[in-house]
């Protein structure tokens, strides 16, 4: 039996007139995320400028508009592009007769759907519980209204505290399990340390898995959707009898990536930390490529990888306008340009990566010392 596709309404906020094009781009991406989660977008609402409302984020008129659209389209949920506080979600659901999600909640849902390995499932559950913990109060509103009645005094609060205690205990257990998995991964990495390693990083759906398959024939899953890859995949590139090197495909980055999600996927992202070379794959055909490059750089900075050797690889040049390619070539003359679906590009890319890996290993002794512990590392295991 095929489940009914949910209908979603998207909501965004434009704080300044000049930001409208950027907000529209973010909402377009939010729609792609909703599609990945299995929803169909039926309407989009943007609040233009003006003060925000602390209780509901958007002003009263927009709340009424969202409620009316939900009834008109028989929608199932409203998704906000901005993060909402637990109180804001509760207040919005009191006014709008459907589920209310924010961007972080939607990303977590996608990750939960696509997690396959034990490690990915553990990471996703840990991130979900960290997200849920401060939002528990809204799930017990039906009991809190009864508090004070005969036989019901304090039941809501008692159950709420019980749930919080159970969730904190489960978070501690999952963090412990993840530590054990990390140790196993560390042992596997030690056995491969003698081989040079290149890690593919970049925005989600930039084509990292396609680049991986071009280099290694590794059978990485390739889909034209966001977050097709959650688990890191390590394969050897050993074509033509030449000395092998390792290529790692990592989870894609995205704007406003929740910190608790980055913390939970710490061990996955450590594949990039252990690499000799970062290969930053960019979708040259995207109208938001500058924004996507910036988001990736910021995430790499959060991971403490800003100073690591990196090669820019502009992918999907078969889809990009010639004017855009000319500009990118002028701005990034040392970058590599290709269409990863063209098998004839494999030799060129492999040779360039070998050159970069040799240079990286020669200069390894002068690699800058790591800076202060990033926030995502500090968040590990503390239930935040």
Which properties best describe this structure?
single chain, 384 residues, alpha/beta, Rossmann fold, 3 domains, 6-stranded mixed sheet, 4-stranded parallel sheet, 10 strands, 46% helix, disordered C terminus
Textual characterization of the structure:
This protein has three domains: about 100 residues, GTPase HflX, N-terminal domain (Rossmann fold); about 60 residues; about 190 residues, Rossmann fold (3-Layer(aba) Sandwich), CATH 3.40.50. It has 14 helices and ten strands. The C terminus is likely disordered. About 45% of the residues lie in helices and about 15% in strands. The chain is globular, with a radius of gyration of 23 Å. By secondary structure, it is an alpha/beta fold. The chain has a six-stranded mixed beta sheet with strand order 6-7-5-8-9-10, sandwiched between helices.
């Amino acid at each position: 039996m095929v489940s009914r596709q949910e209908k979603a309404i998207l909501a965004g906020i434009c704080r300044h007139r000049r930001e409208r094009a950027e907000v529209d781009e973010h909402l377009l991406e939010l729609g792609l995320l909703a599609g990945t989660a299995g929803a169909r977008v039926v309407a989009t609402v943007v609040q233009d400028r003006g003060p925000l409302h602390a209780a509901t984020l958007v002003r009263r008129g927009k709340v009424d508009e969202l409620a009316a659209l939900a009834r008109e389209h028989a929608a199932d949920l409203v998704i906000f592009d901005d993060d909402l506080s637990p109180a804001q979600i509760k207040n919005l659901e009191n006014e709008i007769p459907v589920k209310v999600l924010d961007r972080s909640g939607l990303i977590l849902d996608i990750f939960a759907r696509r997690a396959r390995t034990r490690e990915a499932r553990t990471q996703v559950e840990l991130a979900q519980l960290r997200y849920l913990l401060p939002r528990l109060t809204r799930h017990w509103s039906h009991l809190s209204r009864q508090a004070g009645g005969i036989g019901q005094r304090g039941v809501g609060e008692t159950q709420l505290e019980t749930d919080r205690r159970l969730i904190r205990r489960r978070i501690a257990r999952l963090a412990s399990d993840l530590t054990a998995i990390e140790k196993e991964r560390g042992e596997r990495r030690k056995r491969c340390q003698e081989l040079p390693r290149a890690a593919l990083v970049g925005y989600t759906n930039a084509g990292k898995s396609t680049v991986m398959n071009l280099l290694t024939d590794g059978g990485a899953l390739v889909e034209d959707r966001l977050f097709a890859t959650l688990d890191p995949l390590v394969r050897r590139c050993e074509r033509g009898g030449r000395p092998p090197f390792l290529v790692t495909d990592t989870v894609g980055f995205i704007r406003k990536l929740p910190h608790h999600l980055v913390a939970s996927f710490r061990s996955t992202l450590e594949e990039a930390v252990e690499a000799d070379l970062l290969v930053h794959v960019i979708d040259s055909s995207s109208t938001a490529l500058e924004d996507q490059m910036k988001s990736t750089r910021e995430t790499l900075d959060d991971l403490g990888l800003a100073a690591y050797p990196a090669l820019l690889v502009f992918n999907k040049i078969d889809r990009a306008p010639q004017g855009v390619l000319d500009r990118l070539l002028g701005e990034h003359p040392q970058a590599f340009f290709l269409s990863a679906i063209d098998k004839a590009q494999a030799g060129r890319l492999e040779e360039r990566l070998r050159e970069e890996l040799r240079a990286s290993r020669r200069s390894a002794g002068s690699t800058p010392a790591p800076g202060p512990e990033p926030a995502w590392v500090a968040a590990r295991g503390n239930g935040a």
